[in-house]
Amino acid sequence: MNEIKVGLLGFGTIGTGVAKLLATNADLIAAKVGAPVTLKKIADLDITTDRGISVPAGVLTTNADEVLTDPEISVVIELIGGYNPAKAFVLKAIENGKHVVTANKALLALHGAEIYAAAARKGVEVLFEAAVGGGIPVISALRGNMAANNFSTVFGILNGTCNYILTRMTKEGVDFADVLRNAQELGYAEADPTFDVEGVDTAHKLALLVSLCFGTRVNFDDIHTEGISSLSSVDIKFARDFGYKIKLLAIGKRDADGVEARVHPTMIPVSNPLADVDGVFNAIRFTGDFIGPVMFYGRGAGMDPTASAVAGDIIDIARNIMTGIGRRAAPLGYGDNAVVTLPIKPMGSIEGKYYLRFSAVDKPGVLAKISGVLGKYDISIESMVQSARMAGEEVPIVIMTHEAREEYVRKALDEIDTFDIITQKSRLIRIEDNLE
Questions:
Q1: Bridge partners, 381 (sequence order)
Q2: Which of 43, 203, 309, 407 would be 225's cystine partner, CB 3.0–4.6 Å?
């Protein structure tokens, strides 16, 4: 083949970055593929706004079908985002025998099984390196060099917006709302930051990582998801005093009883490398049976890193095309019939250590009442701090527990919160001491 032609759906920030990269590094890409890779068509609803890049006449179109049905286009790059019309476009591209490259973690987290099955029937590739970790080559590593490992855990800091906010809260002692407002002004957070700060974006990415690591289908609704909007600078200070940092952590674990898949604020020891991942950076840490612990670190979002990941997938597919290979591997790195449905453990069955903060009136007998309820639910106390009053007659009481079952911790807090000595809803943050 003398030339490989690709089509792009979505000419926003990432789409612009991909177009720039393919043009700027055209000679390098051709040298690595063995043939030129040409961007033949770009489809977007807005083809008049200046993106800072010039494209040849006739490349831009508002009609997605000019990409999806063009017999010369071998690879369709989907960068629209969201569920619709992205899903319909991806399925139509596959039905027309085209390979697909996408950065759309939300689409794959909810509709991946249908898309992968369609690709298997047509013998085409679906690659999505840019869907997790931006430019960090984590998915290709899982499908490639680390594929021979059984993985027991995956931990990830997967959202730059949340990590930026938590870094500022930790270093400067400022409250969530103030940092969020500043992050929006700087462009690190969207005008509507819900998907980021409530953990949804992270959960989409975790769904993909759990599938890749453990070879299982994941129902996105089964992933326990909490965000950082309710975190207080008070909790971050106490965490530091106990030798921890708080991160929004994606957690995947597999054992004989099933799979844990959860996203929530988590206290991790300051000595762990993940604790040093600050600002808008991402990190993903795996443990394989032969490779042991491995951590990937880098910029998890942005035009250039994400465009780099998209282009890497394009090159991977282009090399296959050059050698006459239609579909070298299934999207999740497992044979199509080898992906199984493993049970996702309900959150109540999880066992771990907990940070508990109570706001109580300053009077005798408070500690005895709280510790009595904890003991009733078989929750033992590792350490406890009672600080000076926060405001008025309130006093914060902080308890670090030994291993306890989440179901019982929740029941204990519900009971304690009914006491008239408790002035605010009690606060729970999970602790992960062992991140191997």
A1: 401
A2: 203
Burial class, 278, CB count within 10 angstroms (exposed 0-12 / middle 13-18 / buried 19+): middle
**Is the pLDDT reported for residue 211 higher than 60?**
yes
Q: Are residues 83 and 13 in the same domain?
A: yes
pLDDT at 395: 87
**Per-residue pLDDT, 204:** 97
Annotated binding site for NADPH: 105
Which residue type, as a one-letter code, is found at position 418?
T
Same domain, 118 and 8: yes
| Whether residues 87 and 51 fall in one domain | yes
> Which are the catalytic amino acids?
205
**Same domain assignment for residues 196 and 253:** yes
| CA nearest neighbour of 284 among 371, 180, 210 | 210
Q: State the binding site.
A: 9-16, 105, 190
Contact 186, 160 (CB under 8 A): no
Residues comprising the binding site for NADP(+)?
9-16
- End-to-end alpha carbon distance in the chain: 46
Q: What is the pTM of this model?
A: 0.94
